[in-house]
Structure formats: structure tokens, C-alpha cells
Amino acid sequence: MKATLLVLLLSVVSMMVTGDLHLSERGTGPGCLVGTRLAFDLNTTLEETKRLNNEFFDCPNPEPGVPCFFYSHVFKPFFIIEGTVEGESDRFLDSYTFKVVGGGRTRGSVRNYSHEEILNFNSLSDSESSRQTLVWTYDDVPDSFRLTKEGFLLMSNASNRVRWLCQRNSPCGDLTPVNLLDPDFFFIIEVSNRETASSPFCEHTLRFELHAHGFPLDPVRGLFFMQMTMTVIQTILICYIGHTCWRLRQKTVHTKKRDGLDEQDGNQFKAGDVLVKVGSMLHSCFLQLYCIIFRIVQNPMLDHVIMLVVLFDTSTLIAQTFQGVTVRTGWCLSAVDSCLLVFYVVEAVFKILVRGRTYFRKPWNVLDFFIVFMSVLEFTLSLVQSAGGFSSRQASTLFRVLKTLKGARVFRALRLLKAIRFFKGLQAILLTCLQSFRSMSSIIVLMFLFLFIFTVIFREMFNESDPEHFGNIFRTIFTLFQILTLDDWSLIYMTSRDNGAPHIIYFLSLYIVVELFTFLNLFIAVLADNFQLSIRKKRQCKSQKSPDVKEGETQSGVKAVEDLEMCQVEIEEEFHKEALRRASSDSKQSKRKIELISRHLQLLAAMDQHMQKYRSQACLLDNLVETFFTVRSFSVYML
């Protein structure tokens, strides 16, 4: 008896010294053994967590005596019945309730929740069909589950995998990081089988502390970051539009002074004239706004800004491939991702507004739109998931869909190919490679044909001497592809030689000569020849200095300039009509006379425009004639 009391006293003292919060009540009931309690099996839980998630991330700042788990990982707890006297332990196989009864942002701020808060965070009495609480849910949803009288889920060893949810109205929802590290939270978990009907003899209750880290960015807060970024972009656009409108206003004042028109407001208008004036003003404003958006899209500065955004986004994607960065700064990287998504959406919307259906005729634009659409869809589904209202099975399915969509984010790295348009050397190399595939297709077909022939030969002759490399058709193809790179071909030869097939050296030599020294070098020769042809054509174009080349280089921007000129012409027409209407309000001129004056001004403007076109065409014709005689004299001199 004294020895038993001494062991109990030492265990209590050790718990007080370590400060670990593992509070377990001794089993009660007529059939319970004396000196038994329920305990948390940390080692088995860690091993099972690593097996389920294929990885384990410890806390960046672990607390001594508190087990730490990653928020996104599946948590499967194990418990044992521990003997405090003899030290023996058995697996706890009974059903139990899993409840969050306390928590806090730091270990010092951990508090116990009230009974109403415990019911709110863990009970399903109000929504039994949802199968999820505000804090956690089943990862493996059973077909049928049981609830206690108060609505708590009954768990067992067959279905006890927990996935943390932490919705917005929960104590661990919408956490913010500290010192640029991902948020973490301390839970107090209570496990008890007192409310189960299958344990009438022995009842246990256990409370232990759990540290969860790596909480992700809440989608609603991500939406807030997107709104802030959109506000900054709107401010920049408003400043640019204001500056452009001020320049147009100065141009209008200068035109009025030149034409001798006074800046009169025309105070006497009829009701119909007021509506017409308002309509014309709105139409003029929309035209000006369209012209401003057109200038923004056609401005090379937009492409430079987008390229910088793409480079920064790619750097964040590369950073997320490192586990240490993902575990510690995943929240901040998600916030940056939400801000950068706004730039992609604004770029796509502006280009679609300006170019219309022609935006989707270029493959680069289709790729950009697909990437933006997938990113917006991923963010929308995350926002819908955070709103709750899903069953556990639906939440699990939605989680898998989001995981698949996050895998599609790797296509965003392809946006780096847009940088090719800014480097003519890279553009020439890429175009040469694409043009070379036509001439290299026959060589590739011959390489695969001979690869198949040698595969059949090696499979039939050396499958017994070296079954590891030539055991079946797929292993043989992989081995021959490995030999094509000259990787460990000598080891393959020695393996077959040691097993009684030294004549494999002849077949290996023949294969290397045919595939590597012949076809592969021919492949490289065709590519080099195409590079030489492209360089030769480029030199010829520079030596000729043909105006057609310059015209071809600027052909893509001709339509843009024409559209911008049409916008300016429409704005000027609106200005002249408004000026005539204001001038006629004092001189009492007839509508017929106003129309004749307007028509006269339009004819003058058309004549001026045609004269400018005539001068440009005459200049172009002179250049063509001069180039023709230059080329002719050069050819006569060469002959």
C-alpha cells in the first residue's frame, strides 16, 4: 500500500514539474480496476499522422510538453488505458466524444470555454445533417453515426480521423500571423466515454493540450486584400484619367480660342435640348473613357508591369515548393497571391473590353484567360467553403476539388513565356525551334522505329541473362532509352557478360552507333542548319532595307492607331456640334443653317485627312522608287 501511494505521489509531482496539461480522471464504475486512467498515445498518433499525410511538419516554435500538428494534415488520435500502479497499458477501444473545451492564441492566453460555447463549437443538435462542427469535421465520413443527447459526435477507432475547419465564427477562425509566421492556436481537447451506452462499467475522461500551426489565410480576409489592391489600382486609374481629361480640356480651350468661340454655358434650353445635351455628354464621356482604356492596353508600360508581376508571382510559387517556407509563411504568400490575382483580372478585363472577340484568337491570350479563370474559380470555391453549410462528405469533396485546382496553378509559371516578346533574340530562337519540328519529324519517327526494333531484339535475346533490364517490353524500352544517354551502359554489359551473354557488346555498339551517333547527331544538325538559315535571312533583310519589312513590323499597330484616330475624330465631332449649338443659342440661327455649317466643317476635316493620306502615300511611293533603282543598280554592278 505504501509503495502504491509513493508511485502515485511521484507521478503527480512529475506532472506538476513538467507543467503538461494532461488531466485524466480515474475510471469510475463498479467494474473498473483501481489505478487505471485514460491517456493520450502520442507516439502512435505521430506515426499514424505521418502515414496518412506522407509528411510531418513540426511547429516553428514548439512548446515543451505540448504535441504539435500541422493544420492541413489529418489528425487521428489514439488513446490507451494506462495503469498507474503496475505501468501496464492497453489500447482504448471504446466509443468516445471528442470536444474542444478551451483554447487560445498563445499558451498563456488559453482559457476554458463555458458550457454554451462548448455546445456551440462542438454540438450538431441544430444541424445534424451537416456532420461537421465549427472547429472540426470527419475526414472519413461513416454511413451512419451516433449523437449524444446534447448533439456531440460519438467517435471510435474505426472512424476517428479529424480535419480542422475553424470557420469564421469559431475561436480559431480568421487568425492573423505574428512576425510574418503562420498563425497557430492551442486547443484543449476533452475525450470522454461517459455519454456512450457501450461502457456501463468503466467511465474515463481525459483533457489534454494540442498545438496546431500553419493556419491558412481566411478567404474573406483574402477578399479584403483583393479589395484593397483594387482600390489602389482604381486610384492610379482615376489619377491617369484625370490627367488625360485635363489635357483634353486644355486642348478644348485652345481650340475654342482658335475658332473664336466664347465659353458660354447656354443657360436657355428646352427640356428636349437638355436631354440631348446630357445624352451627348454621356456619349462623349464613354468615348473618352474607351480611348483612355485603349491607350492603357496599347501602352508598352502595361506589358512591363505585368511581366514584373509575373516574375514576382513565379518567385512566390518557387518559394512555396520549400517545406520550411510553406509551413512558416504560407499565410503571407496566400495574401500576396490574392493581391496579384487582381492584376491578372484587371489585365484580362481591359483587353477583352478593347479587343472583344479578337482577344481569344491568340493562343497566348487563351492561356492567360484559362489561368485567370482557374485562379478565380479556386478562390471562389474557397470563399464558398468558408461560408459553411456543407455536409461532411460535401466538404471533403470540395476540399479535393480545391486541391486539384491548386495543382493547376503551376500553369501560371507559363506566363514567363510572355517575356519572349520583349527579347527579339529569344523570339528568333523559339520561332526557329518551332519551324525545325517539321523537318525533324521524320528523324524522330525513324528514331522511334529503330528503338522498337532494338527493343524486340534485346527482349528476345537477353531476357534470361538480365531480367532486371530486359524482363519485359517496358523495362527494355526504359533500358534502351537509358543507353541512349550513355548512362551505365557498361554495367548493363557486365551484368549480361557475367550471366553468360558476352555477345551483347556487339548489339550495344550497333545500337549506340545507329541511335546516338547517327540519328541524334542528325537531329542536332538539322536544328543548327535552321539556325543558320534564319541568321542568313535576317542579314539579308537588314542589307536590303526594304520598306515592306518596316511595314510588316508595324502592321500590328496600324489597326490600333486607326481605332485611336476614330475615337479622336468622334470626340472632335461631338465638340464641334456642341460648339455650334452654343453659338446658335445667341444668334437665333435656323436648324437648317446649323446642319449646313456642320456639314461644311465635316467636309473640311475630310479634305484635310485625305490630304494627309495623299502626302504619306506620296512619300511612301518616293521611297519605293528610290529603293527600286538602288537595288537595280546594285544588281547591275554585281553582274
Structural features, described:
The chain has helices spanning 2-18, 42-53, 115-122, 219-259, 271-298, 300-319, 323-355, 363-386, 392-407, 424-462, 467-470, 473-484, 489-498, 504-544, 547-553, 555-587, 591-638; strands at 22-28, 36-40, 68-70, 79-83, 89-91, 96-104, 111-112, 136-138, 154-155, 162-164, 184-192, 203-213. It is an alpha+beta fold and 639 residues long. The strands form 3 sheets. Strands 1, 3, 6, 7, 9, 11 and 12 form a 7-stranded mixed beta sheet that branches. Strands 2-4-5 form a 3-stranded antiparallel beta sheet, with no helix packed on it. It starts with a helix and ends with a helix. The model is unreliable at 1-21, 261-272 and 546-554 (pLDDT under 50).
Which of globular, elongated, flat, extended, rod-shaped describes the shape?
flat
Order of helices and strands: HEEHEEEEEHEEEEEHHHHHHHHHHHHHH
The helix content is 55-70%
Q: Which oligomerization state do the chains in this entry correspond to?
A: single chain
What can be said about the biggest beta sheet?
7 strands, mixed
The CA-CA distance between the termini, in Å, is 123 Å
Structural class: alpha+beta
**Rg, Å, rounded:** 38 Å
* Parts with pLDDT < 50 across at least 5 consecutive residues: 1-21, 261-272, 546-554
Q: Strand percentage, roughly? A: 5-15%
Task: Tell me how many strands there are.
Answer: 12
**Helix count, DSSP H or I runs of 4 or more residues:** 17
Question: Whole-number average pLDDT?
Answer: 75
